[in-house]
Amino acid sequence: MAPPPLLAALLARAGALRKQNGAAEEDAPAFRSPLVPTDSVAGRSLVIVIAIMTFLAALAAGAALLVSQASVEWRAEASSEASLQLRPTPGRDMEADLKKAAEILRNTPGVRDAQIYTKAESEALLSPWLGEGLDLSELPTPRIIVVKLDPKQRPDLLILRADLAEAVPSAVLDDHHLFLERLGDMARAAVAVSALIFILIVGAMGIAVASATRAAVATNREIVEVLHIVGAADTFIAREFQRRFLALGLRGAAIGGGAAIAFLLLARILTRSWRATAGAEQLEAMFGDFSIGPEGFVIILMLAGGIALVTGYLSQAIVLRHLRRLG
Amino acid sequence: MLSFENVGLRYGVGPETLRDITFNIAPRSFQFLTGPSGAGKTTLMRLIIMALKPTRGLINIFGRDSATLEKDEITETRRQIGVVFQDFRLLDHLTVYENVALPLRVLGREEAGYRSEVIELLKWVGLGERKHSLPTVLSGGEKQRASIARALISQPKLLLADEPTGNVDPTLARRILRLFVELHKSGTAVVIATHDLSLMDQYEAARRLVLADGRLHIFE
Fold first, then answer.
1. What is the per-residue pLDDT for B167?
2. By CA distance, what is B51's nearest residue in A?
């Protein structure tokens, strides 16, 4: 070690050297390590936890989206239809009543079509309950008229019911509102359950991040102490932890979000390839083609980004609180 | 610059580790803090850097009563003190360069702005070729010099060194002492905690603060 010049003169010389030729920069370090080490067993475990939680949260959000989209479709479909039921009444000609009712319906503004189900078709509707091959001709089976409504300009059903009651007293017009209400309730309940699951998952993840942060502060206690002694402010140290946890959060959220997107794409491909089977038809009737659409994928990406950000900010807040408590 | 008045420190309900400590450190002064092992040299150092709070007495640092300093003022004060720890306290996951640059990095300064200063200082302490090395592969003497460079990089007004020659051979110990004397001449107040009498004999102009039985005795 050569006898040193004055420190200030030395540093001034370093500054002059830099200005002159920038030679000192040439052999400068190529990277800047994070002050809080990121690659630890606890860090990797947290990435896995965040990945799993993001995957589940994305699926819960996807399920809520799927059910709510499907319920909108079901309701749109069901609200554009109504049915008129005619019960057999002694002394009245069923066929004449049917024609009369169909005519009233067709002449009502807002009704697109009224199609009379034949006796055979009406009996076919009962076969799932009564079995095939029965002779129902002796039974007083009701008859149906399927009414297609204009969803944009629905007829006034009160007036229509009054008109029908006057002409055909045994006619009962059902606009499926009870069914629609139940459908709506069911969809809302499914969305609420999904939202609750989502909140629980995010809450559990928050707890996991909080305890991982506390563990990281405890593990890196010596680093924190050295940083304090070399003059680091609490906010600086908290930001370093935030950077570390944001990196872990981004890694976990990318893995979990990516897996959720892959899962939903696979589910879509599989339901399409199984479309011919009876089970797939039922599934498709319930959930459409398992497609959450581009906005669904955008939501999952935003969710993953949000999880990473929350991870970073939560850890920063916890570290800051911990450091302030140290006094 | 720094004064202690009747400072006492006890841990919990035990006896006082330090009793009635009264002294002051003038700007541009040089002093050895000595005493047998366990006398409380490191504890006194920790009181100076405000890592510990005294149980009684007054510590005045850079014109402020340390008991009244807010957290950010403590941080600001620590930036004017360079500390060389007995056990170096280098961060093992950072290179020698990054360790030495740490006090400037925590100030939020851009790396390009201090790069040449750090490299120049590393050359000065003889670690120019070791800047990319991690502390785990350094010898005791190299770690000591890296620790000294880290304490000096921000040009502190007060330098505290706790047993800075405890891990090095006598030749290197002399060189390190020479380095501190040069620093002192350049205007930095220096406090070296040591129980190495031969080291103190090499610089007799220095004041000696002797800790024994929890009390401080000053030999001008």
1. 72
2. A229
Inter-chain CB proximity A24 and B78 less than 8 Å: no
All residues of chain B having their beta carbon less than 8 Å from the beta carbon of residue A324 are 71
Average pLDDT, integer, range B169-173: 82
> Which of A10, A225, A232 comes nearest B124 by C-beta?
A10
Residues on chain A touching B183 (C-beta within 8 angstroms): 4, 7
pLDDT tens, B19-31? 999 999 999 899 9
Give the lowest-confidence range in A26-40, A172-186, B110-124: A26-40
What pLDDT is stored for residue A24 in this prediction? Answer: 46
Task: Report in angstroms the alpha-carbon separations of A160 from A41, A82, B58, B144.
Answer: 72, 12, 95, 97
Cα(A208)–Cα(A249) distance, rounded to whole angstroms?
Answer: 12
Identify the band that residue A280 occupies on the pLDDT scale cut at 50, 70 and 90: low
Return the residue of B nearest to A21 by Cα: B116
Report phi then psi at B210, rounded to 5: -110, 120
Q: Which residue of A has its CA nearest to B171?
A: A1
Q: Could you give the ipTM of this predicted complex?
A: 0.88
A28 touching chain B per CB within 8 A: yes
Q: Burial of B42 by CB count in 10 Å (0-12 exposed, 13-18 middle, 19+ buried)?
A: middle
The pTM of this model reads: 0.73
Q: What are phi and psi of B133, to 5 degrees?
A: -80, 150
Residue/partner pairs of A317-326 with CB below 8 Å, 24 or more apart: A317/A238, A318/A210, A318/A213, A318/A214, A318/A217, A319/A213, A319/A217, A319/A237, A319/A238, A319/A241, A319/A242, A320/A234, A320/A235, A320/A238, A322/A214, A322/A217, A323/A224, A323/A234, A323/A237, A323/A238, A324/A234, A324/B71
Whether B104 and chain A come into contact, CB under 8 Å, resolves to no
